[in-house]
Amino acid sequence: MKALLEAGVHFGHQTHRWNPQMRRFIFAQRNGIHIVDLQQTMGLLEQACMFANKVAASGKRILMVGTKKQAQDAVRDEAIRAGQYYINQRWLGGTITNFGTIEKRIDYLVRLEAQRDRGEFSRLPKKEALKLEASIEKLNRYLGGIKEMTELPGAMFIVDVGREDIAVAEANKAGVPIIALVDTDCSPTKIDWPIPGNDDAIRSVRLICHYIAQAAMEGHNEWLASRGGYSQVTDEPVHPELESTADAEVPASTENNEYEIGEVETSEESDSTDSNSSE
After folding, report:
1. What's the chain's Rg over C-alpha atoms?
2. Domains of the chain (ranges plus CATH)?
3. Which of 207, 213, 212 is nearest to 233 (CA)?
4. What phi and psi values does residue 58 have, to the nearest 5 degrees?
5. Which of left, alpha, beta for 236 (phi over 0: left; psi -120 to 50: alpha)?
6. What is the per-residue pLDDT for 131?
7. What is the pLDDT of residue 242?
8. How far is CA 241 from CA 14, 20, 74, 196, 207, in A?
9. 8, 27, 29: which is closest to 17 by C-alpha?
10. Residue 164, Cα to own-chain centre: how many angstroms?
11. At residue 65, does pLDDT exceed 60?
12. Per-residue pLDDT at 222 exceeds 80
């Protein structure tokens, strides 16, 4: 609870921008801002972490999506740390429902990088080589986080379902379960595992991403252990400020198979209050 409070997870949007379907998750309103019920947030976060762990333990990976500025770094860093897929620039239409076409672009990217690594670009005219380098950079910007994805993900984690409405629609159509950080201005009806909370403050987004990624990483390690393998995924946080969370992380499993959200110290120098409160 302390970690959630310090990260500003409880700050919602201005009252006139609320979505009535979030009524059951709202505790009160203060100074024209809705306050999220953190007791419910903690319970739903624990359930979402258990589900993420279960998905990863089955051998599948989670696609983490967050293209807004406040979520880009957190989504990328935590996905890489946990060995999961991510999209943090722009959701390309058809990424889920037309994955065959997206996969062809990924294959093209891999071929270009292989040619570059073999030094074949040096034998091309300078203008053509620069053009191919620009193509690689552009493709990596949009597809780099799913370069290794050869099938649909086992689940998706989304930050701001209002902004990522196309991703939500595609996941629903393809039957991919969704875990999402849902603010008071969004609808949770199309989300399988909603986590009510602030999706605008950087510290809030990073904290929730951290818990989901940690659960997925531990589930993936369980899957590897069951196959007699090992994981190359490091258990070290990307950001030093999260090092103090080692003892408070979401455990892979307990006797009653429940996660307990620990107190996480975050020192991210960002506004912990909802950026929408300044609108």
Report:
1. 20
2. 1-95+152-227 (3.40.50.10490), 97-151 (1.10.287.610)
3. 213
4. -85, 0
5. beta
6. 95
7. 41
8. 30, 36, 13, 24, 11
9. 29
10. 12
11. yes
12. yes
pTM score, two decimals? 0.79
Could you tell me which of 18, 145, 128, 17 has the C-alpha nearest to residue 71?
145
Contact of 52 with 220, CB cutoff 8 Å = no
Look at the block and give the residue holding tokens 């950080």: 181
| Best CA proximity match to 195, nearest among 243, 148, 155, 158 | 158
Q: How far apart are CA 125 and CA 133, in angstroms?
A: 12
Residue 45, pLDDT score:
95
pLDDT at 77: 95
CA 247/CA 251 separation, integer angstroms: 9
Q: What secondary structure letter does DSSP report for 215? A: H
Helix (H, G, I), strand (E, B) or coil at 194: strand
CA separation for the pair 98, 170 (Å, rounded): 9
What pLDDT, on the 0 to 100 scale, is given for residue 2?
A: 86
Using the structure block, give the residue that is written with the tokens 């620039």.
Answer: 89
